[in-house]
Task: structure prediction
Amino acid sequence: MKKMSICVFIAACVLMAGNESATAQQKSAVPGYYKDVFMDGGIKLTSRTTLPATNWLDLSLEYLATQRETSTFPPTYLDTIHQTKILLGCPEDLNGALLYPDGAPRFRMVYMNGGKAVGHGKSLTEVGRQIFRDYVKAGGSIVGTCAGAFMASVGYITKDTLKPQPTYIGMWPGYTHSTGLSKSYTGMFVPKDSPLLKYASFKGNHIDSVRHNGGCFMYEREVPAGTEILTLYDYEPLTASGTRSIHKRAASWAWKENDQTGRIVMCGSHPESVESGERLLYMSAMMQYALDGNGATRLKAELKKGKAREMYKTTAEHNPDFTMIGDRQYHHFKITVPKGAKNVTITLSGDNSYDLFLYANKGDFAFRGQCPYADISKGASKVMKFDSLEAGEWYIAVECNSTVETIITKWGVEYVGDTTVLNGVPYSIKIDWE
Result:
Protein backbone atom coordinates (compact mmCIF):
# COMPACT_ATOMS: atom_id res chain seq x y z
CA MET A 1 0.00 0.00 0.00
CA LYS A 2 1.36 3.40 -0.94
CA LYS A 3 1.80 5.82 1.93
CA MET A 4 2.59 9.50 2.24
CA SER A 5 3.99 11.39 5.20
CA ILE A 6 0.89 12.09 7.34
CA CYS A 7 2.10 15.49 8.53
CA VAL A 8 2.75 16.67 4.97
CA PHE A 9 -0.63 15.43 3.73
CA ILE A 10 -2.58 17.13 6.56
CA ALA A 11 -0.64 20.38 6.16
CA ALA A 12 -1.36 20.32 2.44
CA CYS A 13 -5.10 19.95 2.95
CA VAL A 14 -5.31 22.74 5.55
CA LEU A 15 -3.17 25.17 3.59
CA MET A 16 -4.97 24.42 0.36
CA ALA A 17 -8.30 25.54 1.80
CA GLY A 18 -6.92 28.78 3.18
CA ASN A 19 -4.90 29.64 0.11
CA GLU A 20 -7.73 29.14 -2.35
CA SER A 21 -10.05 31.57 -0.54
CA ALA A 22 -7.36 34.26 -0.39
CA THR A 23 -6.58 34.26 -4.10
CA ALA A 24 -9.73 33.06 -5.88
CA GLN A 25 -10.76 36.47 -7.21
CA GLN A 26 -7.35 37.11 -8.76
CA LYS A 27 -6.45 33.76 -10.24
CA SER A 28 -7.21 32.28 -13.60
CA ALA A 29 -10.19 29.98 -13.75
CA VAL A 30 -7.81 27.31 -15.09
CA PRO A 31 -4.68 26.29 -13.16
CA GLY A 32 -1.34 27.07 -14.72
CA TYR A 33 -2.12 30.60 -15.87
CA TYR A 34 -1.68 33.91 -14.07
CA LYS A 35 -5.08 35.24 -15.21
CA ASP A 36 -7.69 34.55 -17.87
CA VAL A 37 -7.78 37.53 -20.25
CA PHE A 38 -5.47 40.35 -21.27
CA MET A 39 -7.08 43.15 -23.29
CA ASP A 40 -4.85 45.00 -25.75
CA GLY A 41 -6.05 48.59 -26.15
CA GLY A 42 -2.60 49.91 -26.97
CA ILE A 43 -1.38 52.52 -29.43
CA LYS A 44 -3.81 53.11 -32.31
CA LEU A 45 -6.39 50.75 -30.82
CA THR A 46 -9.57 51.68 -28.99
CA SER A 47 -8.77 51.85 -25.30
CA ARG A 48 -11.38 50.48 -22.96
CA THR A 49 -11.13 49.45 -19.32
CA THR A 50 -13.98 46.94 -19.22
CA LEU A 51 -14.95 43.98 -21.36
CA PRO A 52 -18.56 42.95 -20.59
CA ALA A 53 -18.05 39.35 -21.73
CA THR A 54 -15.41 38.79 -19.04
CA ASN A 55 -17.93 39.81 -16.38
CA TRP A 56 -20.58 37.58 -17.96
CA LEU A 57 -18.19 34.62 -17.99
CA ASP A 58 -16.66 35.46 -14.58
CA LEU A 59 -13.14 35.73 -15.97
CA SER A 60 -10.21 37.68 -14.53
CA LEU A 61 -9.01 40.60 -16.68
CA GLU A 62 -6.04 42.92 -17.09
CA TYR A 63 -5.66 45.51 -19.81
CA LEU A 64 -3.46 48.06 -21.55
CA ALA A 65 -5.06 51.42 -22.35
CA THR A 66 -3.55 54.55 -23.86
CA GLN A 67 -4.09 58.13 -22.71
CA ARG A 68 -5.98 59.10 -25.87
CA GLU A 69 -9.76 58.96 -26.20
CA THR A 70 -9.86 57.36 -29.65
CA SER A 71 -7.59 55.31 -31.87
CA THR A 72 -7.18 58.24 -34.29
CA PHE A 73 -5.26 60.44 -31.84
CA PRO A 74 -1.45 60.27 -31.96
CA PRO A 75 0.17 58.45 -29.04
CA THR A 76 1.84 60.29 -26.21
CA TYR A 77 5.37 59.61 -25.07
CA LEU A 78 3.94 57.85 -22.01
CA ASP A 79 1.78 55.62 -24.23
CA THR A 80 4.92 54.30 -25.90
CA ILE A 81 6.67 53.79 -22.56
CA HIS A 82 3.77 51.89 -21.00
CA GLN A 83 3.06 49.74 -24.07
CA THR A 84 6.72 48.81 -24.39
CA LYS A 85 7.01 48.00 -20.69
CA ILE A 86 3.85 45.91 -20.54
CA LEU A 87 3.92 44.05 -23.87
CA LEU A 88 7.59 43.98 -24.89
CA GLY A 89 9.18 43.78 -21.46
CA CYS A 90 11.47 45.71 -19.14
CA PRO A 91 14.28 44.79 -16.70
CA GLU A 92 11.73 43.82 -14.02
CA ASP A 93 9.81 41.64 -16.51
CA LEU A 94 12.02 40.59 -19.39
CA ASN A 95 9.30 38.53 -21.06
CA GLY A 96 6.51 41.12 -20.98
CA ALA A 97 3.12 40.51 -19.38
CA LEU A 98 1.92 37.96 -21.95
CA LEU A 99 4.66 35.37 -21.51
CA TYR A 100 6.24 33.41 -18.69
CA PRO A 101 10.06 33.27 -18.43
CA ASP A 102 10.12 30.05 -20.48
CA GLY A 103 7.85 31.50 -23.18
CA ALA A 104 4.62 29.79 -22.09
CA PRO A 105 1.41 31.90 -22.20
CA ARG A 106 0.81 33.77 -18.95
CA PHE A 107 -2.83 34.61 -19.81
CA ARG A 108 -5.24 32.13 -21.34
CA MET A 109 -6.47 34.63 -23.92
CA VAL A 110 -5.69 38.03 -25.41
CA TYR A 111 -8.49 40.23 -26.70
CA MET A 112 -7.34 42.74 -29.32
CA ASN A 113 -9.56 45.81 -29.72
CA GLY A 114 -10.61 47.56 -32.90
CA GLY A 115 -8.84 50.65 -34.20
CA LYS A 116 -6.00 51.07 -36.67
CA ALA A 117 -4.36 47.73 -37.46
CA VAL A 118 -1.35 49.03 -39.38
CA GLY A 119 -0.68 51.75 -36.81
CA HIS A 120 -0.80 49.35 -33.88
CA GLY A 121 1.38 46.84 -35.67
CA LYS A 122 3.99 49.50 -36.36
CA SER A 123 3.93 50.63 -32.74
CA LEU A 124 4.60 47.08 -31.55
CA THR A 125 7.71 46.78 -33.75
CA GLU A 126 8.80 43.39 -35.02
CA VAL A 127 9.84 42.45 -31.48
CA GLY A 128 6.30 42.94 -30.21
CA ARG A 129 4.67 41.28 -33.20
CA GLN A 130 6.87 38.23 -32.62
CA ILE A 131 5.78 38.09 -28.98
CA PHE A 132 2.16 37.67 -30.12
CA ARG A 133 3.17 34.93 -32.56
CA ASP A 134 5.16 33.18 -29.85
CA TYR A 135 2.20 33.50 -27.49
CA VAL A 136 -0.09 31.64 -29.90
CA LYS A 137 2.55 29.05 -30.80
CA ALA A 138 2.97 28.32 -27.09
CA GLY A 139 -0.76 27.71 -26.61
CA GLY A 140 -2.33 31.11 -25.86
CA SER A 141 -5.54 32.05 -27.69
CA ILE A 142 -6.55 35.36 -29.25
CA VAL A 143 -9.84 37.05 -30.11
CA GLY A 144 -9.61 40.07 -32.40
CA THR A 145 -12.44 42.31 -33.58
CA CYS A 146 -12.20 44.68 -36.56
CA ALA A 147 -8.56 45.87 -36.43
CA GLY A 148 -7.77 42.83 -34.28
CA ALA A 149 -9.07 40.59 -37.07
CA PHE A 150 -7.04 42.42 -39.72
CA MET A 151 -3.91 42.11 -37.54
CA ALA A 152 -4.35 38.38 -37.11
CA SER A 153 -4.07 37.86 -40.87
CA VAL A 154 -0.99 37.98 -43.10
CA GLY A 155 -2.43 40.71 -45.32
CA TYR A 156 -5.43 41.96 -47.27
CA ILE A 157 -6.80 41.90 -50.78
CA THR A 158 -7.41 45.01 -52.84
CA LYS A 159 -8.48 45.09 -56.49
CA ASP A 160 -8.08 41.30 -56.69
CA THR A 161 -4.46 41.53 -55.57
CA LEU A 162 -3.21 39.82 -52.43
CA LYS A 163 -1.02 42.20 -50.46
CA PRO A 164 1.01 40.85 -47.53
CA GLN A 165 1.16 43.43 -44.75
CA PRO A 166 4.41 43.25 -42.75
CA THR A 167 2.95 45.25 -39.85
CA TYR A 168 0.18 42.68 -39.33
CA ILE A 169 1.01 39.90 -36.89
CA GLY A 170 0.15 37.08 -39.27
CA MET A 171 -1.00 34.48 -36.74
CA TRP A 172 -3.61 33.14 -39.20
CA PRO A 173 -2.11 32.41 -42.66
CA GLY A 174 -5.05 33.88 -44.57
CA TYR A 175 -6.12 37.21 -46.02
CA THR A 176 -8.80 39.72 -45.08
CA HIS A 177 -10.90 42.02 -47.23
CA SER A 178 -12.26 45.39 -46.17
CA THR A 179 -16.05 45.57 -46.16
CA GLY A 180 -16.11 49.25 -47.12
CA LEU A 181 -18.89 49.71 -44.57
CA SER A 182 -18.54 52.21 -41.72
CA LYS A 183 -20.69 53.53 -38.88
CA SER A 184 -23.42 51.00 -39.51
CA TYR A 185 -24.97 47.77 -38.24
CA THR A 186 -25.43 44.35 -39.80
CA GLY A 187 -27.17 41.14 -38.94
CA MET A 188 -25.30 37.87 -38.50
CA PHE A 189 -26.32 34.43 -39.69
CA VAL A 190 -25.10 31.61 -37.45
CA PRO A 191 -24.61 28.43 -39.55
CA LYS A 192 -26.06 25.25 -38.10
CA ASP A 193 -22.58 23.76 -37.80
CA SER A 194 -21.04 26.85 -36.15
CA PRO A 195 -18.97 25.96 -33.05
CA LEU A 196 -20.51 29.00 -31.32
CA LEU A 197 -23.75 27.06 -30.88
CA LYS A 198 -22.00 24.92 -28.27
CA TYR A 199 -21.97 27.98 -26.00
CA ALA A 200 -25.11 29.97 -26.83
CA SER A 201 -28.36 29.77 -28.76
CA PHE A 202 -29.64 32.55 -31.00
CA LYS A 203 -33.25 32.96 -32.06
CA GLY A 204 -33.55 31.70 -35.61
CA ASN A 205 -29.75 31.24 -35.66
CA HIS A 206 -29.53 34.97 -36.28
CA ILE A 207 -28.06 37.95 -34.41
CA ASP A 208 -29.45 41.44 -35.01
CA SER A 209 -27.74 44.81 -35.20
CA VAL A 210 -24.06 44.14 -34.64
CA ARG A 211 -22.07 47.37 -34.91
CA HIS A 212 -19.75 47.62 -37.89
CA ASN A 213 -17.17 50.32 -38.55
CA GLY A 214 -14.64 49.72 -41.30
CA GLY A 215 -14.12 46.06 -40.53
CA CYS A 216 -13.39 43.06 -42.70
CA PHE A 217 -14.58 39.76 -44.03
CA MET A 218 -12.56 36.64 -44.74
CA TYR A 219 -11.10 36.35 -48.24
CA GLU A 220 -12.64 33.05 -49.33
CA ARG A 221 -10.71 32.08 -52.48
CA GLU A 222 -7.62 30.98 -50.56
CA VAL A 223 -8.80 29.76 -47.16
CA PRO A 224 -6.16 28.09 -44.97
CA ALA A 225 -6.97 24.49 -44.12
CA GLY A 226 -8.67 24.16 -40.76
CA THR A 227 -10.37 27.56 -40.87
CA GLU A 228 -13.90 27.44 -39.41
CA ILE A 229 -16.64 29.91 -40.32
CA LEU A 230 -18.53 31.04 -37.22
CA THR A 231 -20.97 33.65 -38.62
CA LEU A 232 -21.93 35.22 -41.95
CA TYR A 233 -22.97 38.81 -42.62
CA ASP A 234 -26.65 39.57 -43.14
CA TYR A 235 -26.43 42.78 -45.16
CA GLU A 236 -27.90 42.81 -48.67
CA PRO A 237 -27.24 46.41 -49.81
CA LEU A 238 -24.02 47.33 -51.51
CA THR A 239 -21.39 48.53 -49.08
CA ALA A 240 -20.31 52.15 -48.76
CA SER A 241 -17.87 51.71 -51.64
CA GLY A 242 -20.89 50.98 -53.85
CA THR A 243 -19.15 48.13 -55.63
CA ARG A 244 -19.95 44.93 -53.76
CA SER A 245 -22.14 43.21 -51.21
CA ILE A 246 -20.86 41.52 -48.08
CA HIS A 247 -24.07 39.48 -47.75
CA LYS A 248 -23.32 35.95 -46.53
CA ARG A 249 -19.58 36.57 -46.48
CA ALA A 250 -17.68 35.23 -43.48
CA ALA A 251 -18.06 37.75 -40.65
CA SER A 252 -16.24 35.76 -37.99
CA TRP A 253 -14.02 32.73 -38.27
CA ALA A 254 -11.52 30.69 -36.25
CA TRP A 255 -8.31 28.74 -36.80
CA LYS A 256 -6.12 26.49 -34.67
CA GLU A 257 -2.89 25.22 -36.19
CA ASN A 258 -2.46 22.10 -34.07
CA ASP A 259 -3.03 20.61 -30.63
CA GLN A 260 -0.12 22.55 -29.11
CA THR A 261 -1.09 26.03 -30.35
CA GLY A 262 -3.82 28.39 -29.24
CA ARG A 263 -6.97 29.18 -31.21
CA ILE A 264 -7.39 32.49 -33.06
CA VAL A 265 -10.92 33.89 -33.40
CA MET A 266 -11.44 36.82 -35.78
CA CYS A 267 -14.52 39.01 -36.16
CA GLY A 268 -14.97 41.89 -38.60
CA SER A 269 -17.54 43.71 -36.46
CA HIS A 270 -17.88 45.12 -32.94
CA PRO A 271 -19.89 43.07 -30.42
CA GLU A 272 -17.33 43.66 -27.62
CA SER A 273 -18.96 46.62 -25.83
CA VAL A 274 -22.52 45.26 -25.61
CA GLU A 275 -23.65 44.48 -22.06
CA SER A 276 -26.74 42.31 -22.63
CA GLY A 277 -28.68 40.27 -25.12
CA GLU A 278 -27.59 38.11 -28.02
CA ARG A 279 -24.70 40.38 -29.04
CA LEU A 280 -23.16 39.85 -25.60
CA LEU A 281 -23.73 36.11 -26.02
CA TYR A 282 -22.04 36.32 -29.42
CA MET A 283 -18.91 37.92 -27.99
CA SER A 284 -18.93 35.53 -25.04
CA ALA A 285 -19.26 32.49 -27.29
CA MET A 286 -16.29 33.59 -29.40
CA MET A 287 -14.23 34.01 -26.25
CA GLN A 288 -15.30 30.63 -24.88
CA TYR A 289 -14.36 28.94 -28.13
CA ALA A 290 -10.97 30.64 -28.03
CA LEU A 291 -10.41 29.63 -24.42
CA ASP A 292 -11.36 26.04 -25.14
CA GLY A 293 -8.71 26.12 -27.85
CA ASN A 294 -5.73 26.70 -25.57
CA GLY A 295 -2.77 24.48 -26.37
CA ALA A 296 -2.49 21.13 -24.65
CA THR A 297 -0.62 20.86 -21.36
CA ARG A 298 3.07 20.40 -22.07
CA LEU A 299 5.62 18.17 -20.40
CA LYS A 300 8.92 19.79 -19.45
CA ALA A 301 10.94 16.59 -19.32
CA GLU A 302 11.11 12.99 -18.15
CA LEU A 303 13.05 12.87 -14.90
CA LYS A 304 15.88 10.42 -14.40
CA LYS A 305 16.16 8.38 -11.21
CA GLY A 306 18.39 10.06 -8.65
CA LYS A 307 19.34 13.00 -10.89
CA ALA A 308 18.24 16.50 -9.92
CA ARG A 309 16.69 18.56 -12.68
CA GLU A 310 17.93 22.13 -12.19
CA MET A 311 15.56 24.82 -13.44
CA TYR A 312 17.85 27.81 -13.15
CA LYS A 313 18.02 29.32 -16.65
CA THR A 314 16.79 32.84 -17.42
CA THR A 315 14.70 34.04 -20.36
CA ALA A 316 17.79 35.58 -21.96
CA GLU A 317 19.49 32.16 -22.10
CA HIS A 318 16.82 30.80 -24.51
CA ASN A 319 16.68 27.35 -22.95
CA PRO A 320 13.02 26.90 -21.95
CA ASP A 321 13.41 23.27 -20.86
CA PHE A 322 15.58 24.46 -17.97
CA THR A 323 14.15 27.96 -17.41
CA MET A 324 12.82 29.19 -14.05
CA ILE A 325 9.13 29.09 -13.20
CA GLY A 326 6.82 32.14 -13.29
CA ASP A 327 4.00 33.35 -11.06
CA ARG A 328 1.11 30.84 -10.80
CA GLN A 329 2.73 28.73 -13.49
CA TYR A 330 3.01 24.94 -13.47
CA HIS A 331 5.99 22.91 -14.67
CA HIS A 332 5.16 19.27 -15.45
CA PHE A 333 7.51 16.30 -15.34
CA LYS A 334 7.12 12.55 -15.77
CA ILE A 335 8.95 9.51 -14.47
CA THR A 336 8.45 5.76 -14.82
CA VAL A 337 8.51 4.00 -11.46
CA PRO A 338 9.50 0.33 -11.74
CA LYS A 339 7.73 -2.53 -10.04
CA GLY A 340 8.99 -3.11 -6.51
CA ALA A 341 10.38 0.42 -5.96
CA LYS A 342 10.71 1.13 -2.22
CA ASN A 343 11.27 4.26 -0.16
CA VAL A 344 10.38 6.59 -2.99
CA THR A 345 11.35 10.20 -2.32
CA ILE A 346 10.44 13.31 -4.33
CA THR A 347 12.57 16.32 -3.37
CA LEU A 348 11.87 19.91 -4.38
CA SER A 349 14.61 22.41 -3.49
CA GLY A 350 14.37 26.18 -3.82
CA ASP A 351 14.45 29.62 -2.23
CA ASN A 352 12.07 29.57 0.74
CA SER A 353 11.19 33.22 0.29
CA TYR A 354 8.90 31.94 -2.50
CA ASP A 355 6.04 29.43 -2.26
CA LEU A 356 6.49 26.47 -4.58
CA PHE A 357 3.95 23.65 -4.35
CA LEU A 358 4.55 20.00 -5.23
CA TYR A 359 2.09 17.47 -6.70
CA ALA A 360 2.18 13.82 -7.78
CA ASN A 361 -0.38 11.91 -9.85
CA LYS A 362 -0.48 8.46 -11.46
CA GLY A 363 -1.02 8.35 -15.21
CA ASP A 364 -1.95 11.98 -15.92
CA PHE A 365 -0.88 15.56 -15.32
CA ALA A 366 -0.99 16.70 -11.70
CA PHE A 367 -2.90 19.82 -10.64
CA ARG A 368 -3.98 21.21 -7.29
CA GLY A 369 -7.20 19.59 -6.14
CA GLN A 370 -7.01 17.01 -8.92
CA CYS A 371 -4.35 14.60 -7.65
CA PRO A 372 -3.93 12.35 -4.60
CA TYR A 373 -0.64 13.82 -3.33
CA ALA A 374 0.09 17.49 -2.73
CA ASP A 375 2.34 19.56 -0.51
CA ILE A 376 1.26 23.21 -0.49
CA SER A 377 3.01 24.26 2.68
CA LYS A 378 4.87 27.57 2.80
CA GLY A 379 8.31 27.92 1.23
CA ALA A 380 9.93 26.26 -1.75
CA SER A 381 11.59 23.19 -0.19
CA LYS A 382 9.44 20.06 -0.11
CA VAL A 383 10.00 16.34 0.44
CA MET A 384 7.39 13.66 -0.31
CA LYS A 385 8.21 10.20 1.05
CA PHE A 386 6.44 6.96 0.13
CA ASP A 387 7.07 3.44 1.38
CA SER A 388 6.18 2.38 -2.14
CA LEU A 389 4.45 3.66 -5.29
CA GLU A 390 2.43 1.72 -7.82
CA ALA A 391 4.56 0.88 -10.84
CA GLY A 392 4.02 2.92 -13.99
CA GLU A 393 4.12 6.50 -15.21
CA TRP A 394 3.88 9.19 -12.55
CA TYR A 395 3.44 12.87 -13.26
CA ILE A 396 5.15 15.38 -10.98
CA ALA A 397 4.18 19.07 -11.03
CA VAL A 398 5.69 22.19 -9.49
CA GLU A 399 3.43 25.22 -9.03
CA CYS A 400 4.70 28.71 -8.21
CA ASN A 401 2.05 30.17 -5.93
CA SER A 402 3.97 33.40 -5.36
CA THR A 403 2.81 36.29 -7.52
CA VAL A 404 2.83 40.06 -7.82
CA GLU A 405 0.50 42.58 -6.24
CA THR A 406 -1.39 44.93 -8.55
CA ILE A 407 -2.63 48.52 -8.58
CA ILE A 408 -4.92 50.10 -11.17
CA THR A 409 -3.52 53.04 -13.13
CA LYS A 410 -4.71 55.10 -16.10
CA TRP A 411 -2.96 52.74 -18.49
CA GLY A 412 -3.99 49.48 -16.80
CA VAL A 413 -2.41 47.30 -14.15
CA GLU A 414 0.93 48.12 -12.54
CA TYR A 415 2.79 45.28 -10.85
CA VAL A 416 4.16 46.02 -7.38
CA GLY A 417 5.39 44.01 -4.41
CA ASP A 418 7.98 41.32 -5.06
CA THR A 419 8.23 41.65 -8.84
CA THR A 420 11.30 39.38 -9.00
CA VAL A 421 8.91 36.49 -9.57
CA LEU A 422 8.18 37.90 -13.05
CA ASN A 423 11.64 36.87 -14.22
CA GLY A 424 11.28 33.46 -12.64
CA VAL A 425 11.94 31.45 -9.49
CA PRO A 426 14.79 28.88 -9.61
CA TYR A 427 14.39 25.37 -8.21
CA SER A 428 15.51 21.78 -8.62
CA ILE A 429 13.42 18.60 -8.61
CA LYS A 430 14.56 15.03 -7.98
CA ILE A 431 12.96 11.61 -7.50
CA ASP A 432 14.75 8.56 -6.17
CA TRP A 433 13.97 5.09 -4.77
CA GLU A 434 15.56 1.87 -3.64
